[in-house]
Amino acid sequence: MIRALLWILGAILLGGIVHLSTVLVMPQAATQDAYARLLPITPVNAMVPLTVPTAENSIMPFMDPAFAAAVCRYDLSAGAIKLNAPLSQAYTSVTFYTRNSVAYYAIDDRAAGRRAIELDLMTPEQHAQVPEGEDVTAADRLIIESPTKTGLIVLRALAPEPGLMAMARRALANAQCHLGPVQ
Q1: Shortest CA distance to 73 belongs to which of 103, 43, 101, 112?
Q2: What whole-number distance in Å separates Cα of residue 94 and Cα of residue 88?
Q3: Coil, helix or strand for 31?
Q4: In this predicted structure, what is the pLDDT of residue 65?
Q5: FRET pair for 35, CA 20 to 30 Å: which of 13, 14, 59, 143?
Q6: Bridge partners of 179?
Q7: CB under 8 Å to 28, separation ≥6 — which residues?
Q8: CA–CA gap between residue 139 and residue 153 (Å, rounded)
Q9: pTM for this structure?
């Protein structure tokens, strides 16, 4: 009886180890992650609006059709990125992802407290090269450090009613993501 229980306990332990290791390895083994799906339709360091998702046609899984979305696929090899995202009337958010789809920073319109979300995105090495007098994070200048040189910036604007989707898409159309000197 005890021998059978030890075998069962061993099988459960081995199953748990296999399950946990599979869950941890899958994100690195996936070939069609968000970055790979957006690669053919997004140029580097430019904001591109995404089509409104439908049940049959969605670029990424679990996209909410009540949100207009735009994506900037960034590469910090050539320098820091400047992001300027005007706010929509309802709700606007910006989320930063590494190349492997790990979210490392997010900000919304309520945290921005102004008419636009303006920030500089750079690597820790680039941030270290900013002159000391300019290393002040103020309400008008937000510096975000990216853990990787490549990744995604996803901008979302809420359309509380289907008739307001055009307004949300116009707000995203004015967003900019480009290389620029850090001032």
Answers
A1: 43
A2: 12
A3: coil
A4: 87
A5: 143
A6: 81
A7: 100
A8: 20
A9: 0.80
Residue 33: φ, ψ to 5°:
-75, 180
Structural tokens at position 180: 């620029």
Domain 34-179 has what CATH class?
mainly beta
Nearest to 157 by CA among 99, 80, 92: 92
Q: How far apart are the first and last CA of the chain?
A: 73
- Could you tell me which residues come within 8 angstroms of residue 163 by beta carbon, excluding any fewer than 6 positions away? none
How confident is the model at residue 134, as a pLDDT? 52
CB proximity list for 147: less than 8 A, separation 6 or greater: 98, 104
Token pair for residue 73?
């696929």
Q: How far is CA 153 from the centre of its chain?
A: 4
Contacts of 151 (CB under 8 A, 6+ apart): 35, 73, 74, 96, 97, 98, 99
- What are the backbone angles phi and psi of residue 74, rounded to the nearest 5°? -100, 155
- ∠ CA 16-22-26, nearest 5°, is 155
User: pLDDT of 34-82, one tens digit each?
Assistant: 888 888 888 999 999 998 887 777 787 788 888 999 999 999 998 899 9
DSSP letter for each residue of 44-97 = BT-EEEPPPP-SS--SSTT--TTEEEEEEEEEGGGS-EEEEEEPPSS-EEEEEE
Residue 96, both tokens: 């930063």
